[in-house]
Specification:
Length: about 575
């Protein structure tokens, strides 16, 4: 997932209970004046200030805009999480703190999928009684249509992952519902009745229940869909519906009267209203959290470097949680932008970068550890190794210059380096990289872009990347689900390269890596499958297209009034704001 989904790793996932401190929270103050059981890192393994009271308003702020709030057109982790307020998926993650939260449980479906013996056919039965906000029953056909529009219509919806397209039979030929007007649609998704949906795959896929957690399986009524404009009037199947939506500015959600708690074992839906504001300066977001004016930072990536000293000192530290994000921050070297078509030029960058300076620029140890692999330590399949080791992780100028000579650029070269403008820590990291490279003659000009359009308009658009010589691109990624395949596939598989909204920023299309991914996910032996992910990580590092920088941590701050707070690792080690509420 992009940080955009900063992403997921292995730890606790959502508890969709949404508390309400307005009606009484976690049982008074502790000795330090904080609400309930507030302690440092308490939310990593428990629910802080537990409450079952209804009422109140949850308020969020975000430094930029979402790629889209349309469940079928998003890839940011925070939107995947947020969209569960108004979109129910076939499966989701168990509402529990700690490692228990990584368990996949049924949501819209009655149970987890029923696979065939070869894991090529998966069948789900939908719960009865689930309705859209207009009272219309949700059927299996609405789920099928949602998947068709989200995976097969890049001309309108380009931001999401492409797993269904890659693994459904005939997915490579189906033109999507906007071009293919046949009533049957994609034949490899069958809906024999209103409660049953059957997926026929082109190969075994052992992780399919994880795939079913994606917001792309949230039902969409075909009659209400108008492509990219659907985000303006999303039809809810969850406990909340949109009262208002101002693109690029804000959104307000209120209770959906057609939602029935009896059909939904996941969500408690305690608050009366959900408000989110976009384009708020990230330092302002931090200050509003500190002054208890908002419930949470929707981005979920932690406080800014400027705020870090404040929250780590004194009593405020007891309202912090430092969580591994299950994400790796890395530098993508695009093989179709010269001189990075030459592996030795890529290796020169690998050796030149002082990774410790990157960690320091982000805020030091509370923000992460120096990375040497693409897979982070919290994801199944991680293997510790360092293909381009340097003394103290501070770079090796001599080796970098050797590689420059080997690639025919003994005096260095010039290129461009991207960073997201509304992420000060990422810009600081890019500056540290720029300074490292300058020492060996590589001149990198930093180009800044807004995170909301970073993938759809800039870094994820190959034609734009090539035209503007974006040779090096800042990237942070976490698992779409907490296995090596869920982390690697969409960023290193050649099949994931898209005209826009792509995540394989290196444009890596190595036949051996592509085949290894395909073979790995088809293997029903858990141990062999786990080993495959570590082996693929080594293969990627051998291409020198990825420079791992930091295994990300999030330094999170919880306002005193927030109730039902926990950290979700399945959605990037951020606060599960679906648990939170405040008296605002």
């Amino acid at each position: 997932m992009k940080t955009r989904r900063v992403t997921a790793g292995v730890a606790s996932v959502l508890a969709l209970s949404l508390g309400a401190a307005a009606c009484g929270g976690g049982g008074g103050k502790d000795d330090d004046g904080n609400g309930g059981n507030a302690k440092k890192d308490a939310a990593l393994t428990s629910i802080v200030n537990a409450s079952d009271k209804k009422g109140g308003t949850v308020t969020y702020q975000h430094s930029d805009v979402p790629d889209s709030l349309d469940p079928g057109n998003t890839y940011y982790g925070w939107v995947q999480n947020f969209s569960r307020l108004y979109g129910r998926t076939l499966t989701t993650f168990k509402p529990a703190a700690g490692k228990e939260g990584l368990e996949v449980v049924p949501d819209l479906a009655e149970s987890l999928g029923k696979p065939s013996n070869d894991a090529k056919t998966w069948t789900y039965k939908l719960r009865k009684g689930v309705k859209f906000e207009d009272g219309t029953p949700v059927t299996s056909k609405d789920v099928k249509y949602a998947i068709q529009r989200s995976n097969f219509a890049p001309e309108a919806l380009s931001n999401g992952p492409t797993y269904f397209k890659a693994f459904l039979e005939g997915g490579d030929k189906y033109k999507g519902p906007y071009k293919d007007k046949s009533p049957e649609g994609l034949k490899s998704i069958e809906t024999p009745d209103d409660q049953t949906i059957v997926f026929h795959l082109n190969q075994p896929f052992a992780d399919f229940d994880y795939l079913a957690t994606f917001s792309q399986t949230a039902p969409v009524p075909q009659a209400k869909d108008d492509g990219a404009k659907y985000v303006q009037h999303i039809v809810s199947s969850g406990p909340y519906k949109f009262q208002s939506y101002q693109e690029g500015r804000s959104a307000t959600l209120v209770r959906n009267p057609e939602w029935d708690q009896k059909t939904d074992p996941i969500r408690k839906a305690l608050p009366d209203k959900i408000e989110i504001t976009f384009k708020v300066n990230p330092v302002t977001v931090d200050n509003n959290l500190l002054s208890d004016k908002v419930t949470a930072d929707a981005a979920g990536t932690g406080v800014q470097p400027q705020t870090q000293p404040k929250v780590l000192a004194g009593k405020l530290a007891q309202q912090t949680d430092i969580s591994y994000a299950g994400a790796t921050q890395y530098l993508a070297l695009n093989v179709n932008v010269k001189p990075f078509d030459n592996i030795h030029c890529r290796k020169a960058v690998q050796y030149a970068i002082d990774k410790q300076s990157v960690v320091d620029a982000m805020g030091g140890a509370p923000k992460g550890d120096v990375a040497s692999t693409l897979l982070p330590p919290t994801v199944n399949g991680y293997t510790k190794f360092d293909t381009y080791a340097t003394p103290g992780n501070k770079g090796d100028a001599a080796k970098a210059k050797e590689e420059l000579k080997a690639c025919g650029k003994p005096n260095g070269f010039s290129t461009n380096l991207t960073a997201r403008s509304d992420r000060p820590a990422e810009v600081a990291s890019a500056t540290a990289i720029q300074n490292s490279l300058k020492k060996v003659g590589i001149n990198a000009e930093i180009k800044q872009f807004p995170s909301g359009k970073y993938f759809s308009n800039f870094a994820g658009v190959p034609s734009y990347v090539h035209k503007h010589n974006l040779g090096m691109m800042s990237m942070a990624w976490g698992a779409d689900w907490p296995t090596g395949y869920g982390f690697l596939d969409q960023i290193v598989n050649g099949a994931a390269i898209k005209p826009s909204g792509g995540n394989n920023l290196m444009e890596l299309d190595d036949p051996k890596i592509n085949q290894a991914l395909k073979d790995g996910i088809a293997n029903t032996d858990d141990a062999a499958r786990t080993k495959a992910w570590g082996d693929i990580d080594k293969m990627v590092m051998d291409t020198a297209t990825v420079v791992p920088l930091v295994y990300r941590k999030n330094l999170l701050f919880r306002p005193e009034s927030a109730a039902n707070v926990t950290v979700t690792q399945a959605y990037l080690g951020m606060y599960d704001y679906l648990l939170m509420s405040s008296s605002k």
